[in-house]
Design a protein that fits this description.
Elements: E1 5-10, H1 20-34, E2 38-45, E3 51-55, E4 60-66, H2 73-79, H3 82-90, E5 94-98, H4 105-111, E6 118-122, H5 126-135, H6 143-151, H7 153-166, E7 169-172, H8 175-185, E8 192-194, H9 201-209, E9 220-225, H10 234-244, E10 253-258, H11 264-274, E11 280-284, H12 288-297, E12 300-303, H13 312-319, E13 324-327, H14 330-336, E14 343-344, H15 347-359, H16 361-375, H17 380-394
Parallel strand pairs: 1-2, 1-5, 2-4, 5-6, 6-7, 7-8, 9-10, 9-12, 10-11, 12-13, 13-14
Antiparallel strand pairs: 3-4
Helix pairs in contact: 1-17, 5-6, 9-12, 10-11, 10-15, 13-16
């Protein structure tokens, strides 16, 4: 039977977001609605009372419910609104939970004997998050990081195990994450599907280029966006740029850094002491339209992350034709495909690859075509069609 009404549960949804899951939820829900499905998104937001909205542009319903200001937000999001959410999803053909935003609701549903099938999409591996949090205790992490990923690990770990027990279908946002969860949690890999995160490419390009004039500069514009903490590799990027600044043919660059986090003060001090201050701009948090326009205006995107599952930023950068330099890690290799020239084996190789792109306009132009072609694999309409097949199998 073809399902007609889909409920998507997420801890966040634009404009009330603090991570990539909210952006993914928006892209997927809008694409499903364009394919004729009746979609309701139930998401947490910081206000005290629920708010129901109908998005006429994208033809979908959004129910925002209070989530509370403190961690674990995903738990308060459910416990505060358990009766309301239960009533809403009981009328749906399929419930699609995003990561921890479905626990303990999924467990309660199944114990009550309610027959609505559930899909769970995993966006990260709690064991990996714990590892990098512990590793970064003295290298740039915050109390919030420790509370969420270390002290909060038992709850997050339990969530994965409960999802694997009760969900009707388990999806990972990348093949690399699929392998990790299968190994780390002893799950039969055949139970785990891999469906990537996505970008609404046409709308993304319109937002990024509408009424925007690229600033005039003779420097190659580098772009970084992400939380400023250890796992994102931002301090390593600054050290790489310090070395490039010493090379005459490769020092013609400027960098815009978008994001906030525990390393912010350390980074500002590092820039003041080791890099030309006029070439490094710390932009902090900006709205999404500004971020996309700056992404569109840049020449090269730097992704020095030490761990990701399937970051939306890389997909958005490819959709805008931007070459991306990243470490040769499973997530980057999976997203960038055969673009070996963008995958760095280490810090020195990252410096060399980035330096080559800074000095070669021809190489940047060649990679633009490759990135645009590669981004089609992650278009929201394609990913929505894959999820639609999953929903149909369960209905």
């Amino acid at each position: 039977m073809k399902p007609t009404r889909i409920a998507i549960l997420a801890n966040e949804y634009p404009p009330f977001i603090f991570g990539g899951i909210g952006t993914f939820t928006q892209n997927l829900s809008q694409a499903l609605a364009r394919q004729g499905m009746d979609v309701i998104v139930i998401a947490g937001y910081p206000n005290k009372h629920p708010m129901r909205v109908y998005d006429k542009t994208h033809r979908l319903h959004i129910l925002w419910v209070p989530r509370g200001p403190l961690a674990p937000r995903h738990l308060w999001f459910q416990l505060k609104n358990i009766d309301l959410i239960t009533r809403e999803v009981s009328n749906c053909d399929v419930v699609h939970g995003q990561d921890s935003s479905a626990f303990p609701l999924l467990q309660l549903f199944k114990r009550k004997g309610l027959k609505t099938p559930w899909v769970i999409t995993f966006h990260t591996n709690p064991q990996a998050e714990l590892y990098f949090t512990v590793k970064s205790i003295f290298r740039g992490s915050s109390l919030t990081d420790f509370a969420t990923y270390a002290a909060g690990f038992p709850l997050w770990d339990l969530t994965v195990r409960q999802h694997s027990k009760y969900a009707d279908c388990l999806v990972c946002v990348s093949n690399s994450l699929r392998q990790e969860l299968s190994y780390g949690y002893g799950l039969d890999i055949e139970r785990l599907r891999a469906i990537h995160t996505c970008a609404n490419i046409d709308e993304l390009r319109m937002q990024a280029t509408s009424d925007y004039v690229r600033p005039t500069t003779d420097k190659i514009r580098l772009f970084y966006a992400g939380r400023l903490y250890y796992r994102k590799g931002i301090l390593q990027l600054m050290r790489i740029l310090e070395h490039l600044a010493e090379e005459r043919e490769r020092r013609n660059f400027s960098l815009n850094v978008f994001g906030q986090g525990p390393l912010e003060r350390t980074l500002k001090n590092y820039v003041a002491n080791h890099l030309p201050k006029k070439d490094i701009t710390m932009r902090g948090h900006v709205d999404r339209v500004t971020l996309l326009r700056e992404l569109s205006a840049c020449d090269i995107v730097c992704v020095p992350s030490l761990y990701e599952a399937c970051p939306v930023l890389m997909i958005e950068a490819m959709a805008l034709g931007k070459p991306i330099v990243a470490f040769d890690l499973p997530f980057a290799r999976e997203i960038l495909g055969d673009a070996e020239e963008l995958l760095a084996s280490g810090v020195n190789d990252f410096r060399d690859k980035l330096g080559h792109l800074i000095s070669s306009q021809e190489e940047r132009a060649n990679l633009k075509r490759k990135m645009l072609d590669r981004s089609k694999e992650f278009d929201a309409q394609k990913i929505a069609a894959e999820y639609q097949k999953v929903y149909e199998e369960l209905s």
